[in-house]
Amino acid sequence: MTNLLLYSDTERSATLRHEIPLSIGDPFLFAEVDGAPAVLSNTLERDRIAAVRPGIRIIDYQDVGFRELLESGSPREEMMLEMVSRAVAQLGISEATVDPDFPLAVADRLRADGLALTPDHDTFAQRRRAKSGAELDGIRRAQHAAEAGMAAAAAVLRAATPDGDRLVRGDGTPLMAEHVREALRDACAAHGAPAPPDVIVASVWQGFGHEAGSGPLPAGLPIQIDLWPRDEVTGSWADMTRTFVVGELSDAVRAQEALVTRAFAAARDAARPGITGCELHASACDVFEAAGHRTQRTGPGEDPAEGFQFSLGHGVGLQVHEDPDLGQTGRAPLVAGDVIAIEPGLWERGVGGVRFEDLLLITDDGAQTLTDYPYDLTP
Amino acid sequence: MTNLLLYSDTERSATLRHEIPLSIGDPFLFAEVDGAPAVLSNTLERDRIAAVRPGIRIIDYQDVGFRELLESGSPREEMMLEMVSRAVAQLGISEATVDPDFPLAVADRLRADGLALTPDHDTFAQRRRAKSGAELDGIRRAQHAAEAGMAAAAAVLRAATPDGDRLVRGDGTPLMAEHVREALRDACAAHGAPAPPDVIVASVWQGFGHEAGSGPLPAGLPIQIDLWPRDEVTGSWADMTRTFVVGELSDAVRAQEALVTRAFAAARDAARPGITGCELHASACDVFEAAGHRTQRTGPGEDPAEGFQFSLGHGVGLQVHEDPDLGQTGRAPLVAGDVIAIEPGLWERGVGGVRFEDLLLITDDGAQTLTDYPYDLTP
Questions:
Q1: H helices of chain B, where?
Q2: Are A76 and B327 in contact (CB < 8 Å)?
Q3: CB < 8 Å from B in window 178-217 of A
Q4: B14-43 tens-digit pLDDT
Q5: Which of B:110-139 have CB within 8 Å of A?
Q6: Domains (range + CATH), chain B
Q7: B340, B209 Cβ separation under 8 angstroms
Q8: ipTM rounded to 2 decimals
Q9: pLDDT in the model for residue B209
């Protein structure tokens, strides 16, 4: 059995948060030696850690010469490296697997001590894919918050009316992406899972990609709402997208809707243990390509955004984007317990695009949809 | 001039956020070669990056063989390493300074390519200490939100009344730490700078250290409110603490208040360019030790928490704890432009403690207090 080492804080490292399910803002060392967990921790955190991981071995700063180092006058960074080095010596290990993000300064010190360190993505990704009950509860809470946020966004859109090419509110002023975002974020936060400020409220007017969207929203064109709230208790995420049109639905948008609905169903129906992310992505690409659209698989045409130029989705858990990979590089087969977001969509110059995104929990023989929200384009 | 390399996302890496002031959730490569910035970025982010760093060199995924790698079937992690390797080759560098948190997997690959990488804390810490105007504006906004949050907390406490040893609300039910936290977090969020769920509302009943605090609050004992909101626009933080007592003030608490006020003033008055964090910490320790209290400098007595067993504070910016170090290991002299939180306090068994925390901006000849809130123990 290989030893494991992590060095980070639980806000920045989802891998560490999975092992120590607490919010801890200052970095610390976590180890697993012959399957037994250990941490190097200071007095401020040790009781909290012991409470969530009963039986964990806690090496206190005092056990690795904290006071002596404090008095020696070495800078804090060197002091931390020295304490980590001594703690690892106390653990009595000569090799360890570390996550790919393991900090170089700590690695250089431990290797200089003679430790063999091997960064490996899969070891830690596999551990995260097996979610704890608390993490799964957190994903469900975040998903409920997402639905509340989407309902709030839909209500704001429903109250708007077309005025020429744009939407206006009851008082005649333009409806802005910011108004919709504020309403949905308030609803998510009220449900215990705030959504970050860059959740997407955007049409073709706002542009393509990871632009959050600002300014007036159009009448008769698709408006995508893509939001990802995070459960405050566990740090688990959800992710959800719907597309709305206020005003007349053009044939182009109806055609997109029909195709995206088919691609979405194809991917959802194919989701089960054993299928790879690449194969799942292909199930959506097949639908789009058969209808003459470009996909990431065929490559873009003149316009880099046109068609389905992104992956099908991604795993969701303590990170909003995590394993399994659901794009062309997704070699790993799905396993029961995976939580994935599937989000096929189309994009067309001058029109924008329709996209839907649901969370699926992979079960022993298929997938359970965690998202409970209609797909109607009319809010 | 040394070259710099960073590889992270801007949510996890404040160092990268300082260079690319945007929220970007997926990791990417940043380089500075002969003072000129460059990034390796995908289509989804390139326009946003170009908008905030005009003139930055953008190496697109397509420029480093994205499609060919996609078709080669290598896992995403290896594909990313290969693209980073090719991008660094295009930059034509043979050595670089990296931050201590530089991911080991990327470092191992670049070193295998022949690149000399040196992790260094100070290089990047210095860059962060020189805050941009936007970052400083963000800190000020977060600080205003903190004051609004503190006022909301004080209002909840003011409305409570002692009932035996605890506080009760108007309806006769116990006042809980959770009630106070909810009020202050709502106020911070309404001011554009949400505070995380683990901000501290705690008395001696709730315990010492980084425990956020839950359950009933006591009458006649100090209740510490320590909150750290983050400005949503810039990602900059503030940090602020006040201590309140509802009910009769004991002599022990009044004595703590008098001493902490003196230690606080001593540290604030000593804050100026040139003084080290260790010296600033000492200015507060001097006051406490002269009155017979233990400090982190003298070491703890029987009770590890008793006295002033922590550092004076810390720098504040894109991280809530960052350089300069204001504890015994604080060797670096302060410089004009530093933003620091000073938070001296005392802790006594059976009583709890009084602590105040303000933000200071170090100026050319002293320090400007950014916090605008009274220190009264009576809310």
A1: 14-19, 43-52, 66-72, 76-91, 104-112, 121-129, 133-158, 177-190, 251-270, 277-290
A2: yes
A3: 189, 194, 196-198, 207, 209-211
A4: 999 999 999 998 899 999 999 999 999 987
A5: 117, 119, 121
A6: 4-129 (3.40.350.10), 133-369 (3.90.230.10)
A7: no
A8: 0.91
A9: 61
